[in-house]
């Protein structure tokens, strides 16, 4: 079968031929429909994030997938059922307390692998196997966009964890700001626009630009970080009740504290490289304490977040799905899915259709 992988000798995606996998007991065989590409895949390719499976000379890419159950293999799933796979798996197949609790997304390094990211092959293949417990049903009507369940689930978890910090008091948020106009930022912006009176999205692009067009269409305010740095949002626009960082630009983590209103919460998603720079730590510490602010980090997601994401996916408007997906390519022309540029938002590799 065809797979898209990265080898130790090359940092570009390669079309490789590998044997079709056979499901172990408890696993189903899934025929892949589509696999999305995101910032993390680029980081895996350039070696700044993740790592190969032990002893392997290549790693199959891809962690945002949707497929159809080909062989249920006695798992209780049905042949033909559309599913989206979660990403974290037991290291060497051995369970631990995080998997037993159903919280692998909270496991520390070494207590998990991630399909297509760290220590395990991904889903960019004609077929993949997975424990049935980690395959979340997706309605057929949204199968074409089922690869968005994974990125949406990242935000479902981020929001759940961020809001949980505000539960002890009567928090009445009105304004939210997303930092970053990549695919994760734009999907999140649409989600937040459904909840908040006023939303903002920070980028660093000139108009005309397809991502800024989406921000306008969502009904949000575009903020150019070259004109208004994140810590000046309160003076130029307003202090934010919620900030969602999806740039990976490390100064944003600290500028978020200034951007927040009294009692606000900022959630950090970006995965920056090491970078030393100066910050006024005293003022940040003071600001967080005296104004009851909260800054949290979050990574990955699990089954309940995938289930929430399936609900959200069904609500996404058709125009947004059309505008977000800028490339659909077959495995033979996979480079198109990894070509970056201002007109590329979400690229997808299509292996098959329903
Ligand atoms: P992208 O690279 O597609 O998007 C990042 C966006 O941030 C780009 O649009 C970029 O603009 C913008 N940006 C970067 N620096 C600045 C700046 N200084 N001012 C304004 N805008 C800026 O990534 P994704 O949308 O896929 O993901 C976003 C981040 O979240 C990444 O760091 C990714 O690694 C991380 N991530 C984290 C997950 C988690 O579980 N924590 C899961 C998935 C992703 P431009 O294109 O113009 O350069």
UniProtKB/TrEMBL annotation:
Top-tier EC class: oxidoreductase
Compositional bias per record (Basic and acidic residues), positions renumbered to this chain: 7-22
Organism this protein belongs to: Haloarcula taiwanensis
Residues at which NADP(+) binds: 181-184, 204-205, 269-271, 298-300
Keyword flag Zinc: yes
Domain Glucose dehydrogenase C-terminal, residue spans: 143-351
Domain Alcohol dehydrogenase-like N-terminal stretches: 25-140
Protein name listed in UniProt: Glucose 1-dehydrogenase
InterPro entries: ADH-like_N, Glc_1-DH_arc, Glu_dehyd_C, GroES-like_sf, NAD(P)-bd_dom_sf
Lineage, highest ranks first: Archaea, Methanobacteriati, Methanobacteriota, Stenosarchaea group, Halobacteria
Signal peptide annotation: none
GO biological processes: non-phosphorylated glucose catabolic process
Keywords per UniProt: Carbohydrate metabolism, Metal-binding, NAD, NADP, Nucleotide-binding, Oxidoreductase, Zinc
Cofactor: Zn(2+)
Similarity remark: Belongs to the zinc-containing alcohol dehydrogenase family. Glucose 1-dehydrogenase subfamily.
Catalytic activity: D-glucose + NADP(+) = D-glucono-1,5-lactone + NADPH + H(+); D-glucose + NAD(+) = D-glucono-1,5-lactone + NADH + H(+)
Binding sites annotated in the UniProt record for substrate: 40, 114, 150, 300
GO molecular function: D-glucose binding; glucose 1-dehydrogenase (NAD+) activity; glucose 1-dehydrogenase (NADP+) activity; NAD+ binding; NADP+ binding; zinc ion binding
